[in-house]
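chain below, 125 aa
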Amino acid sequence: MNKKLNVLGVAVDTFDMAGAVSFLEDALSKDGLTKVYTPNSEILLHAYKNEDYKDVLNRAALVTDDGIGVVYASRILGSSLPERVSGFDLANELLRVSAPLNKSVYLFGGKPGVAEAAAEKIVSL
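prediction:
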């Protein structure tokens, strides 16, 4: 069972990258939606000041520490997170492990064509 660390009121998972990827592989083997958030220190500070935002983060299945500031905060709290698990790196790992499982990934972008361009780059890897 994974432990969580309270950082400014947000329960951050104490996984290293390998543990987070293993969690995602398990989630991919099940039906349903899995919410994953990768907050950095600025996002955690915003959540600290905004209860609704904090509640959204705390309802996630997985919250990783995307930013060295979060890792440093964990050290100050006396329970160090094992390593930074960035959203970008975790997304790359998700793509890697989802392909052999024939799982699709939904992409969206803020402007027309962004998601399509990202999909082309991913497929060409």
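The CA atoms of residues 47 and 53 lie 5 Å apart. The chain has six helices and four strands.
thats it, cya
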